[in-house]
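Batch manifest, entry 17 of 40.
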Amino acid sequence: MVTEKSLLTLKFRDIFRGAKETFRKDLKTWLLKFLKSNCQSQLLLTVGPGSPATPASASISLSTHCVLNLELFVAGRNSCSWSELYGEHGWYSVIVQPGPLGQNESGLLCTFRKDRDPQNGYIPLVVAASLFVAVILLYFLGLYVSKLRCTQDLYHLFQHKCFPGLFNHASEPQIPAHVPPEEPRKKRLLSLDTFRGLSLTLMVFVNYGGGGYWFFEHAPWNGLTIADLVMPWFVFILGTSVGLAFHVMRRKGVKKVQLFRKVAWRTGVLIAIGVLFLNYGPADGPLSWSWARLPGVLQRLGFTYFIVALMQIAFGVADIQRYQVGVWWAPFRDIVLYWQEWIIITGLECIWLCLTFLLPVPGCPRGYLGPGGIGDDGKYFNCTGGAAAYIDKWILGENHLYRFPSCKELYKTTQPFDPEGILGTINSIIMAFFGLQAGKIILMYRSKPRSILKRFLIWSVLLGIISAILTLGTQNEGFIPVNKNLWSLSFVTTTSCFSFILLGLLYYVIDMKGWWSGCPLIYPGMNSILVYVGHSLLGSYFPFSWEMKSPTSHTEPLAQDLLGTAIWVFIAFLLFRKNIFLKI
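Output type: structure tokens
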């Protein structure tokens, strides 16, 4: 007997199922539009002729990182096409057989089948994140319990019962009647060290493989992944550190000549370490300058630091507090006082825009920002990187550039392209300047912490709006797409927006409220050069790496990469306890 209640339940179930299917279709359509790519079609496999008794078959392994547009041709005609985001380690079949007349032009029917359900590759990551959260909660719970009065009473009772002779009043230190007050010391900005440590820890994890997850790898070309945030965050922090450190040295009376010597020495050491370190490996044999890669991470950091530091030496303001009131532009003094620097930065960005969009590149259209290869239907196969690559080849030579860019596998490129090239370094300076602006805000409003947070919010909103205009809210269809390889303007504004937000959040939690000391991330943040160089040199050795039994799954690679990262955090902690810091 079917009741009205059961009919109503079935109706709601049908509505729910229909809404669920509609949501899936809309989500798939949105993904296809958002991830739209005009790649030239590539032949995956060829199936030989068969017969009704012995049908032909073939198999192939496909990438699971993105939605794939697949087409099946029989006798030179398109028989069927489909778009699918395949799950990891799943088995799928497409069966082609004669179909009813009028089915399609070829008269064939394509049937799609799932032979084995894919595995959920995110389970290891969820387990690791849950364990991490549990450890954090237990840590804070332990701190809370240890501060309770009953816990302290039990602790003192245990001391006096078990060690009665060690805790008598005679052994307690005598406090003098008058203790001279200590000179007030300026509080170190712990949030900045923690931000640096977070960036470095994430960098180590990403460089070690990130557990094999695609979002812990660099985007093939346009787009933004977690791995793409690490380097710009580090550059942003560099600019903030320059602003704070140079202000202190100027207040101490350090002369400009001394500052210049310090900057020149540090820049030279960073570039030297980068060139010599990046171009040597035990399997490479002696260093050969005929193939040595000249650009690199440390080289870019060194040159960026040099330019930003020079601007602070030339145009830095020692006494910035006297302009708090009395002038109409006091609310904008963090910009007005440094108008010369803003002119330089504007000029540098104009140079980047002109070279990127107006420089003629042989065989390529002006302003080309694509990956080349099979991208853009293969029309500009040898135009990878456009003007940026052309300038690097012209000045540095093809043999001195990176030969394995992130676009090589997906877009089948053959041209060398260096993501740390010359043209991108201009926008790296812009990124560091935004970090320098954060440092100026901290210095000018340090007596009003809430004003610092308001300023950070204003800058993040402004930069976010600029990014939305430049990209039109899409990955590939905007005026200037977000691109880490090119260090495009939208990439700089987007990552700077995130940097202001994250630094403001850490400043509020650590320096304002004191809810968190920054541990353990603060330790690698205070020894960044040593951790960066050390993890790169020793990354292929045990215990940071070992031969895995299941490298195609996520469980063992994730455990390996997390363990290697944790070891470097622990090493930084031990060095901190021994007061050992590697500084340049």
